[in-house]
Amino acid sequence: MKAWIEKGGYLNNRGRKWLSRLHVERVRRILVIRQCAFGDMMATRPFLVELRRLFPQAHITLSTVSKYQYAVPDDLVDEVHVLDSRGSLREQLHSLRQYREVDVLFDLADTARSRLQTLLTSARVKLGFPYRSGLNKLLFDVGILRSDFHYEAEVLLDFLKIMGHKPQYPLEFAMPRHQRALAEPRIVYFPYAAVAEKSLSQESWRQLIEQAATEFPGYRHVLLEGHKAEESGDFLAEVAARHDNVEIKGRMDLERLAPWMAASSVLVSGDTGVRNLALATHTPTLGIFFMTVPFRYWPRYEDCHEAVFHRDGQVPGKMDILQGLEELLERLYPERGKARQPASSEA
């Protein structure tokens, strides 16, 4: 098999030789290291779907850590290996060493723990995308450049493109899928983020949702609560009391949240795990960015995702977001007619 790589990464002699002799049916054991939270687990799903397509006979193990168990894609692998990240150093080292030899190792994490696991695991070939290029020679036979300007889920697929694999587009996440013609007239808002500074203030969200409820009367406006105690919708209670089309939706587990999200018209949020869930269900999104580089979380292979951000990095204002929402809704659901009915005097 040809190594489909030129100047876009790192390839040593062992990696080139392995690729030249690769027969996919002979690959029996694959280890994928992915130690990450909810959103990045969602972005991993297309890689696992395509990995199974490329190596249908292989036993695929996903290695993660005990800290990140929510949304682990255990439905797409044969085994989940959980590293003990909370025990003693001796227990953690034992956990790192316990995995047996594999044919192929993918390090999709590039953390201190994943690098040590890569070093301690025997494999015929090791692939990764370290942020520091010097680690390629120490750890990997194939190294991929990691881009901030392409959707993370697509970047992961570069590992398989080196082997000549042709991924499906739009990406397949093996999740409930949004159907535009059946979408309920529901706009979902998720006003939280793992790092508070990445999201608008609660007062900004309150003003945005109240004005959206007035100017987009044909839609229900639903604030989705998160799993953390601080991710409560109480700050919107007065707005919900004043508007019949505003509601606060309690926390849902992933099995209920995924189909509910897929049935919605659009999600409005910042860089969050919930937004990654919407991307995974192909639900339209309006992303709000001012700290995070938007391109890494903004798929361009389908027309249902937009990003609101300013070139100078200023925080987008209420009117920026409402305009983006209007344009997205009218582009995706033209049969519903004009989405926005601006108030006579805008705040």
Automatic annotation (TrEMBL):
UniProt superkingdom: Bacteria
Gene Ontology MF: a single term: ADP-heptose-lipopolysaccharide heptosyltransferase activity
Record key words, sorted: Glycosyltransferase, Transferase
Protein's UniProt keywords contain Cell inner membrane: no
Membrane spanning stretches: none
SUPFAM superfamilies: UDP-Glycosyltransferase/glycogen phosphorylase
Keyword Transcription regulation: no
One Pfam assignment: Glyco_transf_9
GO process annotations (BP): lipopolysaccharide core region biosynthetic process
Cellular component terms per the entry's GO annotation: cytosol
InterPro entries in alphabetical order: Glyco_trans_9, LPS_LOS_Heptosyltrfase
CDD domains associated with the record: GT9_LPS_heptosyltransferase
Name of the protein this chain belongs to: Glycosyltransferase family 9 protein
Species for this entry: Billgrantia desiderata
